[in-house]
Amino acid sequence: ATPTSVTVGIGKGAENGILIKAAESLELARQIQTIVLDKTGTITQGKPVVTDTSSMLDLVPTSANILAPLALWRSIGALESNSEHPLAEALLQYAREQNKDLQLPTVGRFEAIAGSGVKGIVEQQQVLIGTQRWFDEMNINSAVFQTQKDGWEDAGKTVVFAAVNGHLQAAIAVADTVKPNSAKAIQTLQKMGIEVVMLTGDNQRTAKAIADRVGITRILAEVRPDQKAQTIRTLQVKEKKVVAMVGDGINDAPALAQADVGMAIGTGTDVAIAASDITLISGDLQGIVTAIRLSRATMQNIQ
Ligand code: ADP
Ligand code: MG
């Protein structure tokens, strides 16, 4: 590669909202065989909103172990105000809508368990918010909400549960919209002969519903944050592929660094941007197509 053509390529990228950190990634991009896309914030907007809730009070109206809705949402709001997860913002927002003068109580012993949820002590009570798998591990049975959960997930929503002092309180559905250009960009990449894979910590059913909407058939779901980089490595070593990873979250950073080409969503976290070779400034997945085309054109000029 001549230095001049690479410099021109990097300049053209910048004009198109694609920041290329190192010349090597411009050279490598045309060799990409597999593109791994994070779901939340990459394929979707990453601005989830609570759309449905179901309380245990609807099922057992007189139970002493179930908090009244306002008290429950005060606890959920308090706990989630300590979390950086995109879902946390949606839950806090909803808690505020339930109670206009919401005063958040302080939270003791707050813990975020990556890929599972959050816990802490609120008003002397142990509050947990997170996935069904995590609740199963804690021996909190959430099967009473199974039909609702499955239906919400088939609609592409993420479902979390809330428990207080070990008693299940509610199931909550959170929806995130697919970015307008995601389906088109994914289809273009597939036509270019590249395999597109979805990688997410979210559950299989929700992942499948979103994947169906954008034309992805290979889904790696329920992957814990610490396993994301290993997943990329497996594709590189076992399947012998040149792999690109596209993501926005702190969780994605090790996978972005492991990939042959790491691409960060410009509207994502600084950690993801720092771990990447390329930044798609607007977060539009069409930028992946542009980057690969630029790489092909640049390298053609050189040979
Ligand atoms: P993703 O790859 O979609 O960003 P994560 O691995 O970050 O997923 O999280 C997986 C799941 O863990 C989420 O879908 C959610 O169910 C649960 N979770 C994580 N953090 C929180 C939180 N702050 N509040 C509630 N649930 C959470
Ligand atoms: Mg994400």
Automatic annotation (TrEMBL):
Lineage, opening ranks: Bacteria, Bacillati, Cyanobacteriota, Cyanophyceae, Gomontiellales
GO BP, sorted A to Z: copper ion homeostasis
Species the sequence originates in: Chamaesiphon minutus (strain ATCC 27169 / PCC 6605)
Superkingdom per UniProt: Bacteria
Function, as annotated: May play a role in the osmotic adaptation.
Compartment(s) of residence: Cell membrane
Residues of the full protein shown: 395 to 697 of 754
Family of this protein: Belongs to the cation transport ATPase (P-type) (TC 3.A.3) family. Type IB subfamily.
Keywords: ATP-binding, Cell membrane, Copper, Copper transport, Ion transport, Magnesium, Membrane, Metal-binding, Nucleotide-binding, Phosphoprotein, Plasmid, Translocase, Transmembrane, Transmembrane helix, Transport
GO MF annotations, alphabetized: ATP binding; ATP hydrolysis activity; copper ion binding; P-type divalent copper transporter activity; P-type monovalent copper transporter activity
Gene Ontology cellular component list: plasma membrane
The keyword Lipid biosynthesis is annotated on this UniProt entry: no
Protein name: Probable copper-transporting ATPase PacS
